[in-house]
Amino acid sequence: MAGDGLGRSGRRRRREDDALTSPEATRVDALPLRGGTANRPMIGAAPLLITGVATNWACCGTWDRASLTRRLGELDVAPFITGNGPRNTVLKQVNATKSMTFGQALAHLFGVQRIVDGSLYLRIGAESPGFDELAQDFVVPDVGVEYEAAATGVWFSQTGNVTPAHHDWWHSFLIQVRGSKRYTLIHPLDAVSVQQNWQASERFDLSPAPELSTAATPDWDGEVRYEGILSAGEILYIPPFWLHEVETLTEGNISIPMRFATTQSVASNLHQLSQDGLLRSVTNTPTRNVATIINVLRRNRRVFLAREEEFVRALVATREIDVDAARLLADVRHGDGVDR
Ligand SMILES: O=C(O)CCC(=O)C(=O)O
Predict the structure, then answer these.
(1) pLDDT tens string 60-113
(2) Pocket-testing residue among 109, 121, 244, 260, ligand 1, by greatest number of atoms within 8 A of Cβ
(3) Pairing between strand 26-28 and 243-248?
(4) pTM score, two decimals?
């Protein structure tokens, strides 16, 4: 508010005696559904902690080191190595992988036998051998939107592994099969202010985002954040575009991230363009090849210009402006239409 004399922190509504905590995601006992019903929350509306749904699936009852080794122990896998620190970043574009058998990976992940120096994070995606065998033990529920098999998988993790803050473009159900994870979720409209103090390499490239938890950000002045523990048998529903950070709290940890398509999009095309558009291709390709980067940026610019053109044509038509849209665009692009 103009003239109120308060700085950023002064504008915060947090009272002096408020404990610095965030609520956990709302607990429900049914999966959300497109449009919702009397007994089912509406998919897309808010994060949820869903209890009592996955508990009876065979994966939650039977997956342990012995049974998985018996079934798939000889499978060739290539887990990410995540380092030895207390906060072992997991970034698929950055972490090195090491080939081994699934049996060896499980021995390391469960803390039974040390196979590498550091921790492991293993993803068996829908395209990987072994996935179909594992998929017999869980259900793909009907939530009224299309299942995205290619983005679904089974993830094996160890204490201290951290997937840093990021957002995805799908409805995500993080099904916790074994052990527990800590999660922090931030509303998409808080994302811009959250990122304001990040380093450029954290905002625009692959340096891991700074920790978002309440403990790590006592000066948080955003508006919507949830934080809590996801335990075995529970499902965390993460709506599209919500920032999320996930830390593994136990050894031999198993989750199934199950994804479904969304028709939702963030409100601003420009925001979407930088966050979800082709610039993300640069971020996801750890290249220093200038020609490759130029090509991606050129493609990005063509997409942007096409959107700008669409907008200008619509504006001219809707307001019945007596101007040729192409001429107007040319003026804009050459800078000679400014301040006329
Ligand atoms: O479980 C994790 O480590 C990360 C989960 C996640 O980022 C996701 O499901 O999108």
Answers:
(1) 999 999 999 999 999 999 999 998 666 788 887 778 899 999 999 999 999 999
(2) 244
(3) unpaired
(4) 0.83
φ/ψ (deg, to 5) at 304? -60, -45
CA-162 nearest atom, ligand 1? 3
pLDDT per position as a tens digit, 136-193:
999 999 999 999 999 999 999 999 999 999 888 899 999 999 999 999 999 998 988 8
The CATH number fitting domain 8-264, selected from 1.20.1250.20, 3.90.1170.20, 2.60.120.650, 1.25.40.10: 2.60.120.650
Query: β-strands 181-186, 225-230: how paired?
Result: antiparallel
Ligand 1 pocket, residue 244 CB under 6 Å: yes
For residue range 269-299, what is the model confidence (pLDDT) as tens digits? 555 555 555 566 677 777 889 998 888 888 8
- The atom number, within ligand 1, closest to the CA of 255 reads 1
Q: How far apart are CA 292 and CA 58, in angstroms?
A: 46
Domain residues of the chain, as ranges?
Answer: 8-264, 266-340
Task: Report DSSP state, residue 31.
Answer: -
